[in-house]
Every structure is written in C-alpha cells, then in structure tokens.
C-alpha cells in the first residue's frame, strides 16, 4: 500500500489497517523466534508501513481539528 492509497482512506480504515499491520508484525516476530522467517526484510517494511500510517492518520486528525 502506497502513500496515495492511504491518503484516500478514511480515519477508521487507517486505524484498522494500522492494527492489522501491528498484528502482522507481532506474528512475524513470533515466527522469527522459532526460526521460520524466510524474508527478514519484512520487519523493516512493516515498520515503515506503520510509520506511514501513523503519520497520515495524525495529519488527518490535525486537519479535522483545525477545520
């Protein structure tokens, strides 16, 4: 999911996507502990995705608060 797609989502959809991504990262971390991770770069990708979601969600909340 790229930034343009995230910006088109509503705040509720972004929050749901954020929860899902955090849950996926937790599952990936558990798989890492058991040695089942094939692509360790997914951690970095998920962390960036979470940061992207949080940033855009904050921008949307600030825009609605100021309007």
What does this structure look like?
This protein has 67 residues and is an all-alpha fold. It has one domain: Helix Hairpins. It contains three helices and no strands. Helix 2 (11-33) packs antiparallel against helix 3 (42-66). The chain is elongated and about 50 Å long. It starts with a helix and ends with a helix. The relative contact order is 0.17. The mean pLDDT is 94.
- What is the CA-based Rg, rounded? 14 Å
Extended strand count: 0
SSE series: HHH
Uncertain segments are none
Straight-line N-to-C gap = 28 Å
Q: How many domain modules?
A: 1
CATH class: Mainly Alpha
Assembly state: single chain
List the helices and strands and how they pair.
Elements: H1 3-7, H2 11-33, H3 42-66
Helix pairs in contact: 2-3
Descriptive tags:
67 residues; mainly alpha; Helix Hairpins; 3 helices
Provide a concise account of the structure shown.
With 67 residues, the chain is mainly α.
